[in-house]
Amino acid sequence: MHPTEIIELMIVGGIIVSTLIIAIFLKGRSRKAAWFLALVILVVYSIFFVARPFWIDAQIDKKLNLLRPYLEEHYPDEEWTISTVPHRQDGFKHRNPYYIGVVFESEPDVTYDYWVESKDNIYQISFLTNKSLEELEHVE
Residues 36-92: pLDDT tens digits? Predict the structure, then answer.
């Protein structure tokens, strides 16, 4: 589990426990309302925790569909391979799942990371290689 997930669980758990402790001191309908509020918070966070990976996958697919035409337009005579962060696997939680890696066939030892916000806002944010900056062909 990633540290941010642990922090989220601690915060939500603290809110739920606080609500339940307050409910102990209440009477009648107020107590039932506090118990119900704690249950709603638990259910909403559980749904969020389960649905978040699917939401991230959907967002990555949208970004990939925007990046492909961009690459075809800017590098028409070039072949490339696109890779994304396997955010559901252990060992990759520290990486931003929205970074899209592109390796061009003419530069197989360089990975360019792209950030896609919309059709008009696509940025090359970094590259990973042992080459010097002057040797890179696809730096934007």
Answer: 999 999 999 999 988 988 998 899 999 999 999 999 988 888 899 998 888 776 666
- Please tell me the distance from the alpha carbon of residue 135 to that of residue 121, in angstroms, as a whole number: 26
Reading the block at residue 124, the tokens are 């090359």
Gap between the Cα atoms of 133 and 12, Å rounded: 46
Residue found by looking up tokens 């360089």 in the block: 110
> How is residue 40 annotated by DSSP?
H
The Cα–Cα gap between 89 and 22 comes to 39
Tokens matching residue 134 = 């002057």
The answer to whether the beta carbons of residues 109 and 131 sit under 8 Å apart is yes
For the entire predicted model, the pTM comes to: 0.72
C-alpha 41/C-alpha 92 separation (Å) is 28
Burial 59-98 (b: 16+ CB within 10 A, else e): ebeebeebbeeebeeeeeeeebeeebbebeeeeeeeeebb
In the 8-state DSSP scheme, what is residue 133?
Answer: G
Please name the amino acid found at residue 140: E
What six digits make up the tokens of 92?
């990759």
3-state secondary structure of 99: coil
